[in-house]
Design goal:
- Keywords: Signal.
- The protein is of the alpha+beta class.
- It has a domain at about 20-125.
- The protein is about 40% helix and about 25% strand.
- The protein is built from four helices and seven strands.
- A seven-stranded antiparallel β-sheet has the order 1-2-3-4-5-6-7, covered by helices on one side.
- A hairpin with a 2-residue loop joins strand 2 and strand 3 (about 70-75).
- The longest helix has 27 residues, at about 145-170.
């Protein structure tokens, strides 16, 4: 009976951990946020933190000069939290909750350490798709600009249409 309880407990732990640890679908955002979290944890500038590689889904490796030598840090970006752990410095381990805004595709992290407190949030956004960029360009234009573009398109279409009609109405010449 005791083995059954242990098995059930272990199974429940695995299921709960797996469901909450779903990877995000925005790798570019994960890399940016990982760099910022490592920099904040070590009181460094994000420019001093180097992205090394993607270890596996939602787990990334960074390197930074820390404690008089190059050090590596693992950052796991999950659905609701970020996990930071030093490869050489196991004592540097943090679990940081964050919020992801679906509309803007941006992650917002409130994280600072006592040694170098900051009031600023970490914000990292995913790269926009080509379609989203076109939408942004459209909505950033003023109404007169949009009307001018429509007029130019109509003039071009009007110029091309008569040329096609002229060739259709002429009789074919025989040689």
């Amino acid at each position: 009976m005791r083995h059954c309880r242990i098995f059930i407990f272990a199974l429940m732990t695995v299921v709960i951990t797996a469901s909450s640890a779903m990877a995000t679908e925005f790798m570019d955002m994960d890399i940016k946020i990982g760099r910022e979290v490592v920099a904040n944890a070590l009181c460094k500038s994000p420019a001093e933190v180097n992205y090394v590689t993607k270890v596996r889904d939602n787990l990334y490796l960074y390197s930074v000069f820390y404690a008089k030598k190059e050090s590596h840090f693992f950052v796991g970006v999950y659905k609701d939290f970020i996990r930071l752990q030093g490869k050489e410095f196991k004592t540097i381990t943090r679990t940081i909750p964050y919020k992801f805004d679906e509309a803007t595709k941006c992650a917002v992290v409130q994280f600072s350490v006592p040694d170098c407190p900051t009031d600023a949030n970490i914000v990292a956004c995913s790269e926009k798709t080509l379609e989203e960029k076109k939408d942004d360009e459209f909505w950033d234009k003023s109404i007169p600009e949009l009307l001018e573009e429509d007029l130019e398109k109509a003039i071009k279409a009007g110029q091309e249409e008569p040329q096609q009609n002229d060739t259709e109405g002429q009789p074919e010449t025989q040689q």
